[in-house]
Amino acid sequence: MALRNISDLVAAEESGRFWFSAWRKTPTQTTGAGIWFDLSMSPGNPVPNYYAASPNIAIALKQSTDGGIPHGGAVSPLKKHLKQFTAMTATATATPLPMILCDYLMFYPFVDMSITDAQPMDNTVTLPRSTSGVGVEIMPVEVAGQSGIGNPKFYVQYTNSDGVSGRITPTVACNTQVVNGTIITAAPNTAGSAGPFLPLQPGDRGVRSIEAVTFLTGDVGLISFVLVKPVENIAIRTIDAPAERVPFTDFCDLPVIEDDAYLNLICCPQGTLAGAPLHGTITTIWS
Amino acid sequence: MAIQSMDAIIAAISAGKFQRSDFNKNALPTTAQVAGQWYDLSTGGGNPIQSSIIGAGTNLTFQAISDTTSVTATTAALGGSIATTVFTDTTHGTGRFTVGSVLTGTGVAAGTYIVSLGTGTGANAGGTYNVNISQTVTSQTITATQTPSGIDHGGIVSTDIKHIANASMFSAAATTAPAVMMLIDQIAVFPISSVTTTGAQTMLGTQTLPRYADGKGVRAYLVPSVVMGAGTPTVQLSYTNTASVAGRLTPASPSLPIINTTAPVGSIPYSGTGVGKYGPFLPLAAGDSGILSVQSVNFSATMVSGCMNLVLCRPLLTLPITTVGVASERDLLNQLPSLPRVYDGANLQWLMYAGAATPVNSSFYGNLDFLWG
Questions:
Q1: Which of B36, B267, B288, B353 could cross-link with B284 by S-S, CB 3.0 to 4.6 Å?
Q2: The complex's ipTM?
Q3: Do B369 and A196 touch (CB under 8 A)?
Q4: In chain B, which residues have pLDDT < 50?
Q5: Residue A59, domain extent
Q6: A1 lies in some domain
């Protein structure tokens, strides 16, 4: 089964095949303007995720074992979609705030920024969802503070979604933000910055696994390389009203959420979010 | 097949005929963008990496562009070397080296590519180029591979028909708003390194458009891949229109387009304000609705130096950015019914109209949703 038409959408709701979750995140870190930040590491509901595991060894993230925003449990062989998404804050300095709901698939913990040789990754564990890797992005998250001096540069060797190994990202530059949760390649005006996700070798459409990470210049600090699949955007504009997004009727999509998806959020603040409560909801539906 | 109803959209999404693509393009890396002028962000870095196919190829020769197009440039045998982060094209071979070109050769580190021009201008013997990885490579043939690096749109879907469903973008960098972004499908490019030549220069090669084969809606713009010298010539194209009428000319009234005094890499050099300023596209002759092929380009005076490129493209949508940090979002079914079509092989890139002085490397994040059925 799968949603085939608007009638199926209505029928799914009437049959109770939907789920409503509220989420709340209150970052403690001093975030930077124009620098993407991983809210999964912030306190609130769901509980924070600290990417704590053995260095350089792939670890899968799952709703059933790691949490994230609940989305209604396993529904296979039915297919689940995001039906509604809201976000709001009462803290004026936290707006405007673009956000992305992501399915966090897997991560490579504690990659050491001080090592300038290629650091190989252990891929005994493979992608738990989106297994082909199509649409899967690499998101480098700071988990122990760097200095950022000189904007250290690095590249990643990976296997693409066609299963071709030895693919290499362009060289990207780190920002100078030192707090945990910073997405380290995002910056408003830095040469070599790449936004929240790493650019891939031309022609590639996603990432199946990371083989190695090479820093061209060393720094203090540790990074977790997270493989994510972006699900949906939302943008808080003011404190006057929640941002509401109904994917099908407001925007022409119905993002699929796989069983056991670990859902959490990243955002791009205009300044510090320290102490700013961010709230919202998601509603899912399946058929 | 084709999307013909809301139900068909739901069915297509459920069937996996949907692609979300995130991107983060950066403004020009060396020169602040000027308010009132247009720029080609395909020459900027970020995600995806900059196009290396703009500026590649052979002077005045048609190069079709699809998302999988790949061309090469080489040094002569024993003509290339790398010392630390400088690649020297001691004796040039073929093609033109460009920023973003991936270098290969014996002992060249995997993932090495040109990050900026040194003294090299593409094909000058002895020219230098800065690369991303420090290394020592002795004299040999070094090959550059050049690709368009467009935004991924889900691959080939024929016989289905693909559309853009949603588009969004914002920048959190200071003074990046207002701006207008225009998504284009880059179809072809003619590199023009003979920029000191005046008068009509005949375009070369067999011109078969890989998409929009009838030329309808196809427009042309100029963009430097090597900074232009100080000349300010007028420019005029002679082209064939969609009715297959050859010899159509860029109109001379009220003025032919005039190249700006300063024309950095990535700028659309006849955009701006005042006489002879247009943008982003070169105006067509009255009554014309597209370009099927280009016969010649005519610069009225020398531009002293640089490399200009004539790009053929099809505009797909525009996205205004009004406020720093505020995402511009467009639903192209419910809000602005259009569902722009994306053909197999499309090379999707952004043009940008700077409404304010835009600092170098300003970051523009966004995403596009595609669906097909």
A1: B288
A2: 0.95
A3: no
A4: none
A5: 6-286
A6: no
